[in-house]
Each structure stands twice: as structure tokens, then as C-alpha cells.
Amino acid sequence: MKRRENALQTGLHGQISFVVNDAHTARYMGSGSRDVLATPMLVAFLEAAAQKAIALHLSENQQTVGVHLELTHDAATPLGMRVTAQAELISVDGRTLVFHISAHDEMDKIASGTHRRTLAQTTSLDRMLQKKHKK
Fold it and tell me: pLDDT, tens digit, for every residue of 19-45?
């Protein structure tokens, strides 16, 4: 798919759906003792939804990095249930992108919040990581 450079605008949407499996659970992740969707996994899927919302609107040398997340995870989701994670770009301020994020399972709204990402030049980020790796 062709990218459309510099077309970041509010209203862009991204969505990821998945079925909760063993690797997504709090027990597996070590963040709890139950076989329910772990908050860290939910966060990863919400970030992926935000990335999906803007992926086609970044230049080849741009990427975003997550810098802040505010989330309420209000309902447990058991193994085998489908979850849909959504992100909508609600603000673009220079390099800062703000998303409204939410997730639903087959029964309930399970989470909502905001997520902030910063635009970065891929080459600059790679140089910084290489420098850090050498230390």
C-alpha cells in the first residue's frame, strides 16, 4: 500500500480485533493469577490500533513512539472471547499525536482512555538507539 505523506489529521481511526488466548492472559504475563485478558496485552493492542490509524499517513522516514497512556480497564475478558481495540486520532500538535482509545469484548466496554505518541524520524531514532546500545 502506498503511504500518503503528511496527511495526519484528526478523525483517523484504527482497529484491531483478536480472540483472547493463553498468551494474552494475566496468568501468562505475570500481571495477575487469572486466565483473563491482561492489562499489559490490552495496552499493546490499543497501541497497535493507534499505529494502524496513522500508518498509511506517515512518510517512509517517519514513525511514532508511545510516550503516555492513561487507561481504565473496567471489565475482565475470559479466554476465547473476541476483543476489539480502537483508536481515534483526536489531536495533532506539532509532533504530538493524541488518541482516544477504547476496547470492547463481546459483552461489555472493557477499557477507555487516551494515548499520546510522538512523531520521530526513523534515522534519528536508530542513531540514538545505536549510541545507547554502545554504552
Answer: 999 999 999 999 999 999 999 999 999
Q: pLDDT, tens digit, for every residue of 93-115?
A: 999 999 999 999 999 999 999 99
What are the grid coordinates assigned to 6, written together?
503528511
The tally of domains found in the chain comes to 1
Domain-located, residue 94: yes
Whole-model pTM: value is: 0.90
Residues forming beta bridges with residue 36, ordered by sequence position: 78
Query: Pick from 91, 94, 83: which is nearest to 114 by CA?
Result: 91
Domain with 55, as residue range(s), is 13-134
Domain of 80: which CATH number? 3.10.129.10
CA distance 72 to 17: 19
59 phi, psi to nearest 5 deg: -70, 170
